[in-house]
Specification:
Blueprint: E1 2-7, E2 17-23, E3 30-31, E4 36-41, E5 46-50, E6 55-60, E7 67-69, E8 73-79, E9 101-106, E10 116-122, E11 129-130, E12 135-140, E13 145-149, E14 154-159, E15 166-168, E16 172-178, H1 182-185, H2 228-237, H3 255-262, H4 267-275, E17 279-283, E18 286-293, E19 300-304, H5 315-323, E20 327-331, H6 346-350, H7 353-358, E21 366-371, H8 374-384, E22 389-395, H9 406-414, H10 418-425, H11 437-447, H12 453-459, H13 471-477, E23 483-488, E24 507-511, H14 518-521, H15 523-531
Parallel strand pairs: 19-20, 19-21, 21-22, 22-23, 23-24
Antiparallel strand pairs: 1-8, 2-4, 2-7, 3-6, 4-5, 6-8, 9-16, 10-12, 10-15, 11-14, 12-13, 14-16, 17-18, 18-20
Helix pairs in contact: 2-3, 5-15, 9-12, 10-11
């Protein structure tokens, strides 16, 4: 057995420090490869950091709540002297003590409850080298979007799974070369279909687990195990998570356990559970919920969702923009998400935005991006606050023509079951619905409260056509600022052909292979459109 120091890992390209959210292994307890040891909170997400080998945690050097720089010591651990456990903090690249080896890069487990992840974007191209700790891929789970760092220096040889694909945890998503001591113990990459696996020239020696590392029984009265989401909610609602007896496996504290302990079952609590970390601004008519990300000094960009959505639909887009240096603000509009303000008409949908903006530090220069019915709110804001908005981008906007999928609008507003929601969501994206059954059930429960019935009736008339007309307002705004419209050519909710009615000064972007949600179907191209100032249209 050898003693090693476990240091604060670098969990993302921009991470400089992290906070110990919770220890998941007690002092003196053993752990096994892949088992989460510590929960770390960064400026972007909360991640359970897994063991890279079998061992025992002998001494904690940092307490829960401590904020530590990358590379700072967290704990002393004992590992078998045959176990390779690289330091993935901010140190120098490993010395090349062995030839590079091609190995599989599996879909990582970014949380205890994660079973699969969607590849949002590859941050490295085939053939491109990377350093230890450098972010190589961005992954979306059912709870968050996170950058996954390289555990070793190496090179991305071949991408096996493309962007937007959903992959089970542990399944190979790429082939990579790794160098140095890590290459000695690493298994070779899976053989290509039709080819036999190479026969090793040595008989591998199995790692023996000493008697001192046999699993210990849980200590009665020890701190509760909990999911990252449950811990965030406990902090948000002031709940002592150690006092909760969890309903999950091995008494793990789950989301609903915290909500039950908080004693709140209203709109705000339910929506907050689905959205993770959110902020609130109190207005005369209620509270606006919103999320913020990116540097405070970055150029401000405001993302507005559409009908029957909330700020979470922009998760991947917001992450990419924040990484590019933008200050991103994403509110839940009235009658949606965790916002408590209701909206029976489109005018109610848009009315609180000016007051909400007044409470933000940025007072001008916003790039305003809105999706579908959110375009009505964006245009109203641009008209009432002309000095606030510097650029306007509308994604599959409502109000360009008469035709719309009225069945989708009224169906979402009156849905009562997860099955109804699932069928309707398939119309949004060429990828179809990827929500879990529990997420669909929660969304159905929210829709069943009837918050959107009045808004749906104001958006779609009795004949099934759109009642909203934004064309006159767009013509005026296009004289004052760059205006762009983005449509997917496979949009099943609003026909893309309605762009032919747009004023000539409006820039038009038509995206093949995209439906009503281009930001989901073509995330990289969509981000390029938002980030390129040349795509703003004529002035």
């Amino acid at each position: 057995m050898v003693t090693r120091t476990l240091n604060m890992p670098r969990l993302g390209e921009t991470m400089d420090e992290g906070r110990i959210a919770s220890w998941l292994v007690e002092e003196g307890h053993v752990f096994h490869r892949g088992e989460p040891i510590v929960e770390i909170e960064t400026d972007k997400t909360v991640v359970e950091y897994p063991a890279l080998g079998d061992g025992k945690l002998t001494q904690r050097l940092a307490l829960e709540g401590d904020q530590l720089a990358v590379g700072a010591p967290l704990a002393h651990i004992e590992i078998d002297d045959g176990t390779e456990w690289p330091d993935i903090a901010a140190g120098e690249p490993m010395a090349p003590t062995a030839e590079a080896k091609i190995v599989d890069l599996p879909m990582p487990r970014l949380g205890e409850t994660m079973e699969e992840g969607r590849i949002v974007r590859w941050l490295k191209n085939e053939g491109e080298p990377f350093e230890r700790g450098e972010a190589i891929i961005e992954i979306e789970t059912d709870k968050t979007v996170a950058e996954y760092p390289a555990l070793h220096a190496g090179r991305l040889v071949e991408i096996l799974r493309k962007e937007n694909e959903t992959v089970a945890v542990g399944e190979a998503i790429a082939r990579q070369t790794i160098e140095g001591e890590a290459a000695i113990a690493a298994p070779a990459a899976s053989p290509e279909p039709g080819k036999a696996a190479p026969v090793p020239n040595k008989t591998p020696v199995p790692l023996k687990t000493p008697a001192s590392l046999r699993a210990a029984a849980p200590i009665p009265g020890s701190r509760a195990r909990a999911t990252p989401l449950a811990r965030r909610l406990a902090r948000q609602y002031g709940v002592n998570i150690a006092a909760i007896r969890g309903s999950g496996p091995r008494f793990r504290v789950e989301r609903q356990d915290v909500l039950d302990a908080a004693g709140e079952n209203g709109t705000q609590t339910t929506a907050a559970a689905n959205s993770g970390d959110i902020l609130f601004t109190d207005l005369p008519g209620g509270r606006i919920a919103y999320a913020e990300s990116g540097p405070g000094t970055g150029k401000p960009i405001l993302l507005l969702h559409g009908f029957a959505a909330d700020h979470a639909v922009w998760a991947a887009t917001a992450s990419g923009l924040a990484r590019s240096g933008y200050r991103v603000v994403v509110p839940d509009l009235p009658a949606h998400g965790a916002t408590t303000i209701e909206a029976a008409r489109i005018a109610d949908f848009t009315a609180p935005l000016p007051s909400f903006i007044d409470r933000l530090p940025h007072k001008s220069g916003f790039h305003l991006v809105a999706h579908s019915l959110g375009s009505a709110a964006a245009i109203a804001l641009a008209e009432t606050r002309p000095g606030l908005v510097a650029r306007l981008t509308l994604v599959a906007p409502a109000g360009l023509g008469l035709r719309i999928d009225a069945d989708f609008i009224h169906g979402m507003a009156r849905a009562m079951s997860a099955g109804e929601i699932s069928h309707l969501l398939r119309r949004l994206s060429v990828r179809g619905s990827e929500l879990s059954h529990s997420a669909l059930s929660q969304l159905a429960a929210d829709m069943a409260r009837g918050r959107l019935i009045g808004l749906a009736g104001d958006a779609v008339g009795s004949s099934g056509g759109q009642r909203l007309d934004i064309l006159p307002a767009l013509a005026t705004l296009a004289e004052k600022m760059p205006v762009s419209v983005v449509f997917g050519l496979q949009d099943r909710i609003i026909p893309w052909e309605q762009v032919t009615a747009l004023p000539p000064r409006v820039a038009i972007h038509l995206m093949a292979g995209s439906g009503h949600m281009p930001q989901w179907d073509q995330p990289r191209d969509f981000l390029d459109i938002l980030s390129d100032p040349g795509n703003g249209g004529a002035r």
